[in-house]
Amino acid sequence: METPRELFQIMTRRLGLLNKDCCSVGGCNLSATQSHLLYEIDRSHNPSMQQVAETLGTDITTFSRQVQSLVKMSLVNKTPDPTDRRIYNLSLTPEGKMVAATIDQQMNEYLNEAFSHMSEFEVETLLRSIKLFNEAMGKSSNCCAPVKG
Amino acid sequence: METPRELFQIMTRRLGLLNKDCCSVGGCNLSATQSHLLYEIDRSHNPSMQQVAETLGTDITTFSRQVQSLVKMSLVNKTPDPTDRRIYNLSLTPEGKMVAATIDQQMNEYLNEAFSHMSEFEVETLLRSIKLFNEAMGKSSNCCAPVKG
DNA sequence: CGCTAATACTTGCAATTTGCAAATTATTTT
DNA sequence: AAAATAATTTGCAAATTGCAAGTATTAGCG
Prior knowledge:
Two copies of one chain form a homodimer.
Chain A: H1 4-21, E1 24-25, E2 28-29, H2 32-43, H3 49-56, H4 60-72, E3 76-80, E4 88-92, H5 94-115, H6 120-139
Antiparallel strand pairs in A: 1-2, 3-4
Helix pairs in contact in A: 2-5
Chain A binds a DNA duplex through helix 4.
């Protein structure tokens, strides 16, 4: 019988490969890192650089440069915060939203393809289970909280 | 309601952070990539370089260098194949096995910690679901097969 | 057998990514 | 108003990556 770790290792490897493959949208050729960045900016509401970097567990200086390149690609806006000018708020440009939506769609398509090899009940159970697991990890104080020791 | 992609994105992010944090064993400070490499060599039986590189979706030249550094750290053995001398078979040294086992243990410990926020039934369901999902992804022909287009 | 093709793996750059320390700009505290 | 704190950006320097080209070794085919 597989240990939990084995199951998760195989799954994350496969999903990681998926992530790599789903990063090309039209002319845009994103890295997996950049795709994560777009995803996170998209789901947060005008987050600051710090916030996103911390959520993703990325060094802030590395993050700063990643954002720069996405701004250069016209996918991300960096707007000075009106109430505190040390802070820059991040948001997606219309083009960025388009790219993020396309990536999202591609990944959901692949996932649905994989789900087609499972019964409807199994899929529902899987998704419900992962939701519970995500919540459980959120409660877990150990490591892997966004903040690093 | 979250899309499948959202659920998986959050989960893989957390598991990725876990992976990063679980890579230090005594003096050894491994990268997540190196940890994956150890894991895969451990579970295969004397695989060739090609095999592992392909499974992990890594460029073979990059892989070659990764192996070199692990050999230098005395974690991996690179043995010429007796029947075909173009091939090198990989295996873990005793020290490599030790490191791999420790990483495995650390990750399982964290996972169990997270599981402690779920009922026993929920955990069983989760693990069974992931197993099914892994099999489904294996059947899926699309992308994310180890071979890249 | 002998020559070409294919396979497994390794180097040589060159570009990209990363992180620590230090600098910059803006705000808060005293 | 000076000092401490906070958010972000640069300056290296090291590590990671990938493509093209190179080295062995084996397979295929006349």
